[in-house]
Amino acid sequence: MSSWVRFRDCWTLYPRQPRGLVEFVGGSYLAATPQISYRRLLEGLAARGVAVHAWSYVPGFDHQLQAREAWSAMRACRTRMQDRLGQLSPPLRLGHSLGCKLHLLAPDGGRNCSGLVALSFNNFTADQSIPLLGVVAPSLGVNTEFSPSPKETLRLIKRQYLQPRNQVVRFNRDQIDQSLDLITALQCRQGDRSELLKLPGDHLTPASAGLRRQFLGDWAEGSDRQQQVNRLQDLITSWALSGTVSSG
User: Which single residue of 37, 44, 137, 207 could bond 144 by disulfide (Cβ 3.0 to 4.6 Å)?
Assistant: First the structure.
């Protein structure tokens, strides 16, 4: 397995002989350094033969714009990879928290991928995500809501997201998960094949061990945690290697 290499706004990691590709977008404060914040999860995928492209970004208010930026960066990265390594099967899109929303808002409607694995989908309002915003923003005269809003996001998923194959993952101790809203919106669509999977864990289960200890303390790691991550890696790898591109 090679080392992490940055290309534009993506961090890339390639196994010696890639058998598939995962395009990853992380969530909130973890997203700026995905090669560190999600190192354990993503390097585990590479060890299983899956190439990884992870977009690096700082979350803003215009999620539609950031969805386009992520999609464009991933496309450029994929073109470069194919020039070097040859054609691969369609990529699997993988998101955590806000990253799920950005994948779901991609301008291609999910058509140019084999599916989406959505971990801990989060669709909070801006003042829920940034508690002091509702107090400070009016005096500053700034926008106080994400674009699109949570309600509009779910409407767009129902009308414009065309990928039928989605694995929505909800962790049983995640206090800010909104996966039930997502699976409901997805299953409203004709021909949908989305599934909801409940796993043990919390919102930071996909994050690297060091970050979990920093936020939750030493108790946050143990053999059961590693088993949870291993199961997640196996699930994602299976999806990455078995999917076919949507023609929707």
Answer: 137
Phi, psi angles (nearest 5°) of residue 20: -170, 175
∠ CA 156-144-155 to the nearest 5 degrees? Answer: 10
Cα torsion 240, 236, 21, 123: sign: positive
Q: Encoding tokens for residue 10?
A: 């993506």
Tell me the pTM.
0.89
DSSP 42: H
3-33 pLDDT, tens digit per residue, is 999 999 999 999 999 999 999 999 988 999 9
Determine the Cα–Cα distance for residues 35 and 108; give it in Å rounded to an integer: 26
How open is the CA angle 221-99-57, to the nearest 5 degrees? 95
Candidates 13, 98, 92; CA nearest to 57 is 98
Residues 192, 64, 246: CA angle, nearest 5 degrees: 30
> What is the rounded average pLDDT of the residues 28-40?
93
Count Cβ atoms below 10 Å from residue 17 Cβ, excluding itself.
Answer: 8
Taking Cα atoms as reference points, which of 60, 79, 157 lies closest to residue 118? 157
Domain spans, the chain: 5-242
Percent of the chain topping pLDDT 90: 74
Fold of 5-242: Rossmann fold (3.40.50)
Compute the Cα dihedral for 35, 234, 26, 221 and give only its sign. negative
